[in-house]
Specification:
The chain is an alpha+beta fold. The chain folds into two domains: 112 residues, no CATH class; 66 residues, Nucleic acid-binding proteins (OB fold (Dihydrolipoamide Acetyltransferase, E2P), Beta Barrel). 42% of the residues lie in helices and 19% in strands. It contains four helices and five strands; from the N terminus they run ααααβββββ. The chain has a five-stranded mixed beta barrel.
């Protein structure tokens, strides 16, 4: 097998894997089965951080490396200065690592900016002013509306001291336990 055939094989295998992944993911990519770690998605790779993102060992990154190695190898064999295997193989490896590094940085930025949790925001709601939109009966649950970042949210709420509060009154969020908001009269 010639070095040209090896580079061509890497390029084709990488591209076929990528195309197969796209088609299979589109038609058969339900979210019924998950693996542990990395948020439960195989594209996140082999780590156990449970954080959204992409692993350097994900199938997407590995396929990109193989494809880039094969593609650059084919390109480098076309020039007399880089046509020998001893020159084209290391150059192809370096270029493949550069491509994978750029892809990894890009995908990490995409995952970081698109994946977030509302837990951290809920934890920071203490002290936020809200208005009662559904009266809170004595020792009961009503509903509040509050605005964070220009977006209006509603939530079930009860008074800290167990008293009743009429519709339209202003209150202050004191704490959040699960989905239950606790409030007190605003001063």
């Amino acid at each position: 097998m010639t070095v040209h055939a090896i580079y061509l094989f890497c390029l084709v295998v990488g591209l076929v894997f990528t195309l197969f992944s796209v088609v299979a993911g589109h038609f058969f990519g339900g979210h019924a089965d998950h693996v542990g770690g990395s948020g439960g998605h195989a594209e996140a790779g082999a780590d156990s951080s449970d954080m959204p993102g992409v692993s350097i060992f994900s199938p997407t990154i590995l396929a990109a490396f193989i494809t880039a190695f094969g593609g650059f190898g084919l390109i480098f064999t076309q020039f007399s200065a880089t046509g020998k295997t001893i020159v084209s193989a290391p150059l192809s490896l370096v270029c493949a690592f550069l491509v994978v590094g750029a892809l990894y940085k890009f995908l990490s930025a995409v995952f970081t900016h698109t994946q977030s949790s509302s837990e951290s925001r809920v934890g920071q709601l203490a002290g936020t002013t809200a208005s009662i939109i559904s009266p809170i009966p004595e020792n009961g649950v009503g509903e509040i509306a509050y605005v964070v970042g220009g977006t209006r949210y509603t939530a079930p709420a009860r008074m800290e001291n167990g008293t009743s509060v009429a519709n339209g009154k202003l209150v202050k969020i004191t704490r959040v336990v699960g989905t239950q908001f606790y409030v007190e009269a605003a001063s």
